[in-house]
Amino acid sequence: MKIARYLMRNTALVNIPKQIERFSKYSPSPLSMKQFLDFGSANACEKTSFVFLRQELPVRLANIMKEVDFLPDKMLCTPSLQLLQSWYAQSLMEIVEFQEKNPDDGKVLSNFTEALVNIRNRHNNVIPTMAQGVIEYKESFGVDPVTNQNVQYFLDRFYMSRISIRMLINQHTLIFEGSRNPAHPKHIGSIDPNCDVVEVVKDACESSKMLCDQYYLASPEVIIKQVNAKAVGQPLHIVYVPSHLYHMLFELFKNAMRATVETHESCPSLPPIEVMVSLGDEDLTIKMLDRGGGVPLRKIDRLFSYMYSTAPRPVMDNSLNAPLAGFGYGLPISRLYAKYFQGDLQLYSMEGYGTSAVIYLKALSTESVERLPVFNKSAWRHYQTSIEADDWCMPSKEPKKLGKYNVKV
Asked: Is 254 one of the annotated active-site residues of the chain?
């Protein structure tokens, strides 16, 4: 038996590159929020979902696994990256096993759902594991501009791929596994067809205030205003994934509150954080303004960089306490959540005063379409590009004194 298991395991290992090559030749099929909604609410057929996912999930996994190979060799050799690659390879092969299975067999459908739950659980720690690999690489070898550019490009795509894969898995398991949340019976999987945006803002605000009070024994007041240009006086509702929106808002509130408290720690009172939520014909926009001292323009891009973080290295444990600073991935991951359905997250800062953070979401479910990475020649070329010399003059640290000329006679 041991020999048989050994042979089977090694056969699977040999087949992994073939399967990656096979499925990476296909492009992922992006779905709109409306398609997610229509399928889950009216035409929820487990067979249809099974047939789609057994093809689509390997395609999404294989596309991003092809790009992993373009990371620096020394980064790929870190224990964290080795572990992460093994997770992805195992998950790919587990789904591939269902390629020839009969969709009319109820046992097959049940096993498939169980496999998806196992895959989701296996990938729970992908973000901190990848972050740990980046830290291990930086501490051992340092970072040059080309590596920084390639790793930033890769991680944006890698984490976006992860968001999309979890979205597909969550939709299938929540709809067909019978694990609907009794607190949200009208949700279609993880999607709220009538998401009350202001309520999500309030939830994220309360959680952030609790955390801020826990660490600083104080927290600023939050003023929330709303404008509905489509239906004056009516609540702001859109089709969206509340957990995604909450993730973005919690990160922004957390940053705004920390900056406000630390900037005004010697003041008798804290200035409030102002939030404006506006719904138009195309966009739903959430603007958060704090008076936390702001950030210099030079440092804005660093806030979205995976390779640059001033936060102390977090301890990897199972603690229930959420730290106010972790790997420094909060903002870049939040921006990916916004971009996932064609939105965006931007920061506008006034050094010495404060920062405005703006989340843009699509107001229409037909326009909220998944933004997915695909491995093709354009992606390949990006990893081959080197940093070229700047074609603009760079200011010297010691400008020439043009008012004086030392003329030797």
From this structure: yes
